[in-house]
Specification:
200 residues; alpha/beta; 7-stranded mixed beta sheet
Length: 200
């Protein structure tokens, strides 16, 4: 698998700043924390507060070591979005690829549309989006889940399709997208950023 470009998160946060986002006043949530030593460690100092969710308790010591000022919660993120009463201004979804958790989940698909309930009235989503999945041909369950979620052929997604797809998802759940952009992490995966405001 092609390595990720760690500088992509810096470019992504710089891009949000160019759109006028004041990230120093934002409460951020990282939904798939793992050890917190990759992009979360880069942006942790750029936000007002940070909460990190991670399902695997084996990663908790590293999370607390790498992100000492963050609130750490060991929980199934996809279950937690449906029950938490907290709301966040930046929601970061650095999800695993393919099908995982014994087939229960695929990429970030099961987060939607529930994840909109934890967004503040003005919020930014930063999501891992796989435009050209590597190894999809040999993984039929993954291919079928992508086809069902996106409603198109799952092997290659055009950037324009991706931005319009998530814009429509937001609109269907009461949020207007103010701006959005993509930043490549490698030749397959990109960060999708979209800023939303809740409709009255």
């Amino acid at each position: 698998m092609e390595p990720m470009d760690k500088g992509a998160i810096v470019r992504t946060f710089d891009g949000m700043g160019c759109h006028g986002a004041d990230l120093t006043a934002v409460s951020a949530l990282e939904l798939f924390g793992r050890e917190g030593d990759w992009h979360t460690a880069v942006y942790a100092s750029r936000v007002q507060s940070l909460e990190v969710w991670e399902i695997n308790p084996a990663f908790e010591p590293a999370l607390r070591r790498n992100l000492p000022s963050a609130k750490i919660r060991i929980t199934d993120s996809i279950v937690e979005v449906a029950r938490t009463q907290d709301r966040f201004g930046l929601i970061v979804v650095d999800n695993p690829q393919a099908v995982y958790a014994e087939g229960r989940y695929c990429e970030h698909f099961e987060l939607f549309p529930t994840v909109f309930r934890i967004a503040q009235p003005r919020a930014i989503f930063l999501i891992n989006v796989n435009l050209r999945p590597y190894g999809l041909e040999a993984n039929r369950p993954w291919s079928e889940r992508r086809r069902n979620f996106y409603g198109v052929a799952p092997h290659a997604l055009a950037p324009e399709f991706v931005t319009s797809f998530y814009r429509a998802l937001a609109a269907a759940n009461g949020f207007e997208t103010r701006w959005s952009f993509l930043v490549p992490r490698n030749s397959f995966i990109s960060y999708l950023v979209f800023s939303v405001t809740k409709n009255h």
